[in-house]
Amino acid sequence: MAEAYIVGAVRTPVGTKKGALKDVHPADLGAHVLKELVDRTGVDPSAVEDVIMGCVMQVGPQSLDIARTAWLSAGLPEGVPGVTIDRQCGSSQQAIHFAAQGVLSGTQDLVVASGVEQMAMVPMGSSVAMALEKGMPFPYGEGWGERYGQQEISQFRGAQLMAEKWGLSREDLERFALESHQRAVKAIEAGYFDREIAPLAGLAKDEGARADTTMEKMAGLKPLREGWAITAAVASQISVGASALLIASEEAVRRYDLTPRARIHTLAVTGSDPVYMLTGPIPATEKALARGGLKIDEIDVFEVNEAFAPVPMAWAKDTGASLEKTNPNGGAIALGHPLGATGGVLMTKLLHELERTGGRYGLQTMCEGGGQANATIIERV
Q1: CB 381 within 8 A of CB 260
Q2: Contact 24, 201 (CB under 8 A)
Q3: CA angle 147, 143, 55 (to 5 degrees)
Q4: Is 89 annotated in the active site?
Q5: Cβ atoms of 86 and 58 closer than 8 Å
Q6: Which residue(s) pair with 144 in the sheet?
Q7: How far apart are the C-alpha atoms of 225 and 313, rounded to whole Å?
Q8: Of 89, 97, 181, 265, which one is the catalytic site residue?
Q9: Cβ distance 209 to 335 under 8 Å?
Q10: Which residue in the list 55, 265, 352, 367 is annotated as catalytic?
Q11: Start and end of every Thiolase N-terminal domain (predicted)?
């Protein structure tokens, strides 16, 4: 049976909206991690067969196939193609899936999976601005309206619906958010992320974690809507960042003298209710575990994207996963969520945490727009 291995994984530090990376062009963000990936693995870049890059807001400076422009901006060989994909917040996790599937199918031996999002330069929602400007109730069309009516469809409402359905109070959510910041601050101070980060623009550490966050400060924030439990404190941060991983076949490992770091064990993707939107990680995790023949307690580390606090909290309740093993070094509430890059950022963190702790299995999952989710299990080698 064919195998697909992660042989390299690198990311930028995740910058804040007004931070050190705010003026870095997205093509240069992507170029930075692509060049660093080539340098760190020592691979001949002309041997790479494709560059798959996740990016959600593919407009303005992120348009015209940012995967291709980032690769060329890095000064890498013109003979290597690139393709940009959008599975919303899971775009670069899907890039990992596509890269692994190319290798597992036997049609490719060496593929880059990457992601980028410059949210300071290309704001969230930019890609649907035209539809909204034309007065369309949704940027979807008549069929969508006939199926789901005229109700609000948004990640913010989805997070509130989850909080209500799973009985999560505002205080519950804020306690979870505080823990995310505390874990992130501890990890940054301990240098846990140093090996995986390629410093850029004078920035070598993630910018978002707040050591001075308290329950009292969070309690003073206004909810996103009157009566809601959701505030900015329990949501992921608007961020800037990029990530890149090199996926290789057994043949490529031998031919180019590469060092396998983890085996792609199981891939799963699923759809879920697009109104709740954010519940997909629950069935995606169940699907991945069943397909991989594993039980939840066999997983050593989980990375579950903290788009909003209700997502990992509800996920843990339904799957029985340990929150102690989930986002052990903080999540997107503290460290940020550069949409198209986050899947690769989380996988890079997951790989390095398994290596740091000696764990065997890691599972990553994240909610995605439209009610979808990817789940990936890797095995450290």
Answers
A1: yes
A2: yes
A3: 100
A4: yes
A5: yes
A6: none
A7: 21
A8: 89
A9: yes
A10: 367
A11: 5-251
pTM over 0.85? The answer is yes
SS3 call for 130: helix
The radius of gyration of the chain's CA atoms, rounded to the nearest angstrom, is: 20
337 annotated active-site: yes
Distances (CA, A) of 104 to 4, 51, 91, 264, 318: 6, 16, 20, 9, 31
What was the pLDDT predicted at 131?
Answer: 74
Annotation says 32 is catalytic: no
Q: Which of 32, 181, 337, 352 is catalytic?
A: 337
The total number of residues shown for the chain amounts to 381
What does the angle CA 309 – CA 91 – CA 150 come to, to the nearest 5 degrees?
A: 65
Sequence-distant (≥ 6) Cβ neighbours of residue 136 within 8 angstroms: none
CB 55 within 8 A of CB 115: yes
In DSSP terms, which residues pair with 368 in a beta bridge?
372
Burial class (CB in 10 A: 0-12, 13-18, 19+), 7: buried
User: Hey, what amino acid is at 200?
Assistant: L
Distance in angstroms (rounded) separating the CA atoms of residues 70 and 189: 31
Cα separation, 361 vs 377, whole angstroms: 7
